[in-house]
Task: inverse folding
């Protein structure tokens, strides 16, 4: 993975463009590659980024967005179909993030395009995404489904403490609305990894529910697990892109629990043949390609 850009670059993120987002729209599926289909969502438009920029907050994160694309196919040099799974990773401080439906449409356009090799497919996807997201570097890796050792599609079971159903207290309807004030922590200092499979958020465009496993690694005052579970449940009616929700959780944990080091990943289930895992971490944590692992429902 590339080195992370410096924090000052947060201040130079451009405003949202006026191109119509394809999500929620009736669209035709292309039969040829068309990079113009790719739709960038400017990160500066998110509530978390606006708050960070306006308050000059010290809560600056680094990290990446990891996309797994399960429905990628193209033609080889003799026009025989090839099928694989692609993993795409790019920096979370990039000016924009790609919109998921536009990426699906773009990948569909590769289905009848000829490529001499898997590497050629990887290179063209990376080149097109770099251009639309204003990126200097991006990692694209394709594993053929019939490969002898398709490690990229093996499930990796994370070693996390599951906090779901960690108490027997009842919930009210009001507790399904976003509320970071429920977070609390104790005096004991710990280093631990927690997870919950109960995160549900809503797409900001369509209102459809999205589901994710939350994985949190941190060092600092021990987070009260029942409070963390209730906080995660409070996202049940919250509208936000996957990446924004990850950043919101990171910022809220920093604000309310003040960990010395923090890493947050949201492993969303797939939609339209794509799953998205945004990862945000403190400046003192190095890149770990195995975090947070891959869950069975992805």
Result:
């Amino acid at each position: 993975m590339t080195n992370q850009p410096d924090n000052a670059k947060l201040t130079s993120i451009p405003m949202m463009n006026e191109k119509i987002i394809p999500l929620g729209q009736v669209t035709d599926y292309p039969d040829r590659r068309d990079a113009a289909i790719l739709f960038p969502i400017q990160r500066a438009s998110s509530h978390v980024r606006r708050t960070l920029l306006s308050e000059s907050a010290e809560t600056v994160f680094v990290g990446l967005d990891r996309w797994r694309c399960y429905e990628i196919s193209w033609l080889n040099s003799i026009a025989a179909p090839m099928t694989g799974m692609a993993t795409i990773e790019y920096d979370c401080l990039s000016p924009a993030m790609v919109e998921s439906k536009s990426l699906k449409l773009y990948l569909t356009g590769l289905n009848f395009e000829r490529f001499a090799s898997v590497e050629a497919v990887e290179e063209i996807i990376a080149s097109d995404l770099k251009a639309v997201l204003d990126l200097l570097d991006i990692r694209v890796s394709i594993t053929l489904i019939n490969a002898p050792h398709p490690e990229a599609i093996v499930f990796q079971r994370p070693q996390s403490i599951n906090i779901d159903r960690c108490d027997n207290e009842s919930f009210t309807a009001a507790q399904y609305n976003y509320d970071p004030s429920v977070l609390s922590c104790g005096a004991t200092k710990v280093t631990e990894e927690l997870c919950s499979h109960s995160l549900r958020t809503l797409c900001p465009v369509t209102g459809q529910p999205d589901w994710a496993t939350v994985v949190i690694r941190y060092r600092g005052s021990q987070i009260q697990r029942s409070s963390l579970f209730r906080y995660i449940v409070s996202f049940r009616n919250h509208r936000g892109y996957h990446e924004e929700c990850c950043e919101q959780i990171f910022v809220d944990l920093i604000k309310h629990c003040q960990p010395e080091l923090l890493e947050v990943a949201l492993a969303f289930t797939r939609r339209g043949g794509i799953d998205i895992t945004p990862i945000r971490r403190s400046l003192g944590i190095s890149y770990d390609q195995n975090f947070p692992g891959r869950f069975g429902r992805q």
